[in-house]
Write a structure and sequence with these properties.
This protein is an all-alpha fold. It has a domain at 63-195: Orthogonal Bundle (Tetracycline Repressor, domain 2). It has helices at residues 11-35, 42-49, 53-59, 63-84, 92-108, 111-121, 129-147, 155-174, 180-195. α1 crosses α2 (42-49). The radius of gyration is 19 Å and the shape is globular.
Length: 196
């Protein structure tokens, strides 16, 4: 006998679930913005989002998974903003450098939140792996969007390396090794070295 597909949840129920997830992400982000990585405690996230602690754990099994999901949501929001205001520049290197600078400035505005998300991104927590892949996919799509169809040799490798450089430079900024101006300059250099 063929297996039956599970019935689709009612539209209202999936909208409630999406709204609940968004409240959880918003609560985690606001706690991190206020006090950094250590300020994000699962019990506090649940309380701020006005959901039961068990509900939080059904959606996100760890703080790192939750913070990486918040980063993925922010990266997706950046991608939507970039679609409305595309990268500037005649050459792919110019456009990619523009996008990387704009993204870094956005992350720079909330240093504690950014530090918390980068800390979570570097966590070995296996539960955060799917959310990490989502972040990498969005970053790759953002950079590819800035290339905008121009012919670039070894494009997949270039996109992958630029994503790695972006995250490494961001980690150096979070760790206090470089300032925001140096972060933007290093990203600009990487884009030009790989795309010019």
């Amino acid at each position: 006998m063929p297996a039956r597909a599970a019935p689709a949840p009612p539209a209202g129920r999936s909208a409630e679930t999406a709204a609940r997830r968004q409240r959880l992400l918003d609560a985690a982000a606001s706690l991190a913005a206020e006090g950094g990585y250590d300020a994000v405690q699962m019990r506090d996230v649940a309380a701020r989002a006005e959901v039961a602690l068990g509900t939080l754990y059904r959606h996100y099994s760890s703080k790192d998974q939750l913070l990486v999901a918040a980063l993925a949501a922010q990266a997706s929001a950046l991608q939507r903003r970039l679609a409305l205001r595309p990268a500037r520049g005649a050459a792919p290197a110019d456009r990619v450098a523009d996008v990387l600078r704009r993204a870094s400035r956005a992350l720079e505005r909330e240093p504690r939140l950014t530090a918390a998300m980068v800390t979570a991104l570097s966590s070995p927590d296996p539960e955060a792996a799917r959310a990490k892949l989502e972040v990498y996919d969005v970053l790759r799509a953002i950079i590819a969007g800035a290339v905008d169809g121009d012919q670039v040799p070894e494009l997949d490798g270039v996109l992958r390396v630029l994503g790695y450089v972006w995250l490494a430079v961001l980690g150096s900024w979070v760790g206090g090794l470089i300032d925001g101006e140096r972060m933007a300059g290093d990203l600009d250099s990487a884009a030009r070295l790989l795309l010019d």
